[in-house]
Amino acid sequence: MSNYFSYKFGQGLVLGMLFLLPTHHRYTATAASFENFTDGTINQQFGWTVEDQWGNSANIYDQAITLDAVGTRVWQMSNAITSQSFSNQPCSPITAQVAGEPGSSLWNDYGPNFTQPFNPPHYGANATVSTFYTRVMFGSATGAPQPGLALSLSATAKQSTVRMSWVGLQDSGSGIDLGFFDYVDDSYRFTEMATNLSYTDLHTVETTIDFMAGPANDVVKVFLNGTLIHTGLSWEAFYYSNEQIVPGEPRLQAVNALLFVARGTAAPATTGAGYYFHAVEVSNIPPTPAPTATPTAIPTAAPTASPTAIPTAAPTASPTAIPTAAPTASPTAIPTAAPTASPTPSSFTPAPTPAVPQVTPTPEGQDVAVPILDPATNTTSGGIEFANVTAPGITVVVNVVPDPSDPLYEPPSNFVLGDPPTYKFITTNASFSGDITVCLSYLPSAFPAGTQPRLFHFVNEVWVDVTTRVDPVAQLVCGVVTSLSPFALGTVTSPTFLAQAYLKSLVQAPGRRFTLFLDLLFLERPLEDVVVSCLLGGNTSTLHVQGHATRLLQGRSTKVFKRARLGDEALSFTRGVLKPNTWRPKLRYVKTDDELAWTLPAGGIVLGKSYKIKWRIRLGRSVASGTELPLTVSVAEWMEDLVVSVK
Q: Is the pTM of this model over 0.70?
């Protein structure tokens, strides 16, 4: 981490709900290039200010409209002069509408004639939209290192002390570094987003903020030259707990402009240089220009005489000292790295409008169940089960209409989505440990005939198949995960085989034998040998079998295993049958205490022929009445879970 960013306000985990609220308005951006500006200070040109709302402290900073080496009119700014204030720092024109969560306003902490504090803060206007967007195109003014050069950009209420986000631009001596601060768990958290950007290229930094009702859940995204480089939180949690309008009530802060801040240790050697800003845009939703290209080389003029560089103290790393309240107890949040549904601003395609989120209280306890409701009928259409909730909170489920142009909605290779597709964003601010079981309902008609849906989880920028159970009777697909983010249902594009496992009776008597059946039909020749297996659950609280079936059983509620009698196996195999068995020599099964499996050589599989597979299983005499014991049948990566109930 560079020196400028080395000061840490504190550590914390992301507490956020990564979904978008509907955006009801669209407006054009305000301010773009500086071609029509007049040389000299930017103050009072086209809505720009370098003073507070009472005209104090204007023009004290090193900034000016000027021409670059090739005659392009740009805005130059450096931190040759700094100030500890905010309201008089250079500030962009305002957006067409005020952005913030419902009920938020443009509060200003300064009172008349620059008095501070002003209690209560000065009221501005109410938020009417939930999205704030900025685009800044900039480059080095010299094309070479400038020791001590550092500025920050923040969403703000114009000419106020408010900052709701923070992106830092710092010259590290080997390039330009981009940093990010968000406010988490009563402290500021730093992230280094990019390092060593070229001194001779133009760079475009775009930021979107999606404001959402509730604390610590606004989503801030930062893009560099059209590529998402970071997702974090806004600073709303600071204002929620500090500088309140009404004591004891959350302060809901809105924004309408972009603040350029020169604060901390000054770098006098950067006078007249620093950064050249070629374009600055602020709006309530991204506009639709051409996508950002690869960084463009910018020629620089021959150096002119400039003040000799003078040693400066190591720059302060903070976005500067902001009073923070004493930490209060709050649930530990789960990191959520997955991106939200909005498209990257490089394409500037409006994000799809999701449904109203389902918000469900999530109490402390074990095996805590949260239903998933169908927004159209308000009936249960799935569920979430937390193995252990250590601190209560809320769980949010959002149905999202996908945008096919967004990479987030590209299914994994060899898989297709349902028609209509099912996408859900699930998140919680409850603290938890252990596994989470997620089940989503499906319509068989939404998927190609002969296929089964699979549950996908977006993890580390990749869709991962986390399916552990498909229940065709209840029409549910379940998976076990350890974090929450987007989920989707998909299936294989062209099924290699069709499989159905079943029992003639789901209720069995202790000491009796019963048969588990599997009908298997191959439509295409598999590329590799196929393992057909049955895995027993309930014999022991610690399972030994490796592979996906083991993950399934470990992910189930431990209630399944508590009633099973150790020492007298709950379930055991007696034998297995495979018909027809046309391989030569004939195939034999492999049996352990928990699993009985065949490996079918791909070369001998007959397409279109129905294979009948049976597992003869004995139920232990001492298994208590009412015990439920799981059976898992798998064919390659396909699985089906059944449960036997004891009379």
A: no
